[in-house]
Design a protein that fits this description.
84 residues; mainly beta; Elongation Factor Tu (Ef-tu), domain 3; 4-stranded antiparallel sheet
């Protein structure tokens, strides 16, 4: 998970999960700690080691957090739904 931009934006960095909120049986909102400049329409390349990666659009953000509202449809998003 991306937390903040490193000197090289193509290198991954870890993020602290603040909350995983269930919206429906297959949709959830993931909130992670982040301190970066976010603009409308931006997405993050989100990954879980040994599981996979996917581009995920930002659904909301604050000064030190970012949210992604995700539908669990595959291996990666299914695993993300159960993070704590």
């Amino acid at each position: 998970m991306i937390a903040k931009p490193a000197s090289n934006p193509y290198l991954p960095s870890a993020a602290k999960i603040l909350n995983v909120r269930s919206e429906t049986d297959c949709e959830f909102t993931l909130t992670v700690q982040a301190s970066c400049n976010i603009t409308p329409g931006q997405f993050f390349q989100v990954s879980l080691p040994r599981i996979g990666e996917a581009p995920i659009s930002v659904s909301n953000f604050g000064t030190d957090w970012v949210q992604f509202t995700i539908r669990a449809v595959g291996r990666l998003t299914g695993a993300m739904q159960h993070l704590r």
